[in-house]
Amino acid sequence: MKRLVLAWAATAVAATGAAVAVLTLLGTGLTGDSGHVLSPAEVRAALNTATQRATGTPAGDATPTAGTPPQTAQGKLIRTAGGTVIASCEGDLVTLRSWSPAQNYSVDQVEPGPARKAKVEFEPEEGAEVELKIECSAGQPVTSFGS
User: Fold this and answer.
1) Strands (E), 26-128
2) What is the DSSP letter of 65?
3) By three-state DSSP, how is residue 11 classified?
4) Which domain does 21 fall in, by range?
C-alpha cells in the first residue's frame, strides 16, 4: 500500500512538472516574450511609425502646421467636431475615401461620389448635426458646411 501511494505521488509530481515545462515552452514559443513592457519612447516611436504608414506622411512631416489639413497619398484629411473625412479629387470629381464619426456622433447620410459634390452628415446624440459638403477646386477638396 505504501509503495502504491509513493508511486502515485511520484507520478503526480512528474506529470505536474512536465505540464509546467510544456506550458512554459508553448507560452514563450508561440507568443514571444510576454514579459517585455514598452518604454514611453518605444510607444511614441511605434505610434509615429503607424501614423506615418496610415497617412502616407514621410518622416519629419508627421505634424501639420496649424490651420493646414494634412494631405495624404489617398486624399485630404478634413477634421470637424462631428468627425473626420478623407476626400480626394480626380479632375473636378470628388470622392470620399473614408469617414469616421467623432465620439457621441453617428453617420446619418453619406453621398461618397465620385461626383461634383460629395456629402456626409454627422449626427450627435444631442444637438445640431454637422453636414459637410465637399467639392474640388484646382484639384483639391474644398469643404463647406451645410445645415
Assistant:
1) 71-72, 75-79, 83-90, 93-101, 105-111, 117-124
2) P
3) helix
4) 2-36
Q: Are residues 75 and 122 in the same domain?
A: yes
Residues 114, 90 contacting (CB under 8 angstroms): yes
| Helix ranges (DSSP H) in the chain | 2-31, 40-55
Residue with cell 459634390: 117
pTM equals: 0.48
Q: Model confidence over 95-147: pLDDT tens digits?
A: 888 888 888 888 888 888 888 999 999 888 888 888 889 898 888 888 887 65
What phi and psi values does residue 144 have, to the nearest 5 degrees? -130, 150
**Alpha-carbon 45 to chain mean position:** 16
Whether 73 maps to a domain, the answer reads yes
Beta-bridge partner residues of 137: 140
CB 106 within 8 A of CB 122: yes
Buried b (16+ CB within 10 A) or exposed e, 99-129: bebeeebeeeeeebbeeeebbbbbbbeeeee
